[in-house]
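Attaching the record inline, Q. Sequence:
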Amino acid sequence: MDSKKTLKIQDLVHVTNEKMNEIAEEISSIKDSNMVEKEKNEKIRVLEQDFRQLLEDETKQVEEIL
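Structure, as predicted:
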């Protein structure tokens, strides 16, 4: 693999990790909030879907780079 591809993948992973950390912080914040349990669970479920989608998108982008 050439260095340009490596750098693109590293940048992509870095951005994805930042987004994943933001989602994790949001989930933690929701868990600590005073919301009704049902509302907490729904918001967390949506964020978990976002998390999974982020990983799928990253995988597709890495495959395209390779």
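DSSP finds two helices and no strands in the chain. The first helix runs from residue 3 to 32.

More tomorrow.
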